[in-house]
Design brief:
The chain is α+β, with helices and mostly antiparallel strands. 30% of the residues lie in helices and 13% in strands. It contains 3 helices and 5 strands, in the order βααβββαβ.
Length: 127
Amino acid sequence: MTTNPTLDFPGWAPVSEAQRARLFQNEVDPGNRGLHNNAFVVRVNGYLDVSSLERALVKLVNRHPMLRVRFRHPDSRPEQSIAVAALPSVTHVELGAQDEKAVETHVLRDARVPLDASEGARIRAGV
């Protein structure tokens, strides 16, 4: 794992105004957490090397600090920290012979599950 020491810091810093607004929105309307998560489906025809995909996602997360940011709220003042490393969540889901609409419904429902803001990985995948 390679990290950029100028971007990776274990300390805590104030959040930006945009981050503060999004965190406030999540607190005021918890029913809409996950509403702004991006989701997409890719159909793979043929062999998929899942372990290579998982390693690629780890490299992606470790290359981009914004995917490792975490938040906390001491004294009601939100702060952020960038984890030195983080593991993305990769779940294995058996959807069998479901049609495309059923798969899309599953993906969109899963995308609405909010990410834990106190953890480092801001990405998850299902295969």
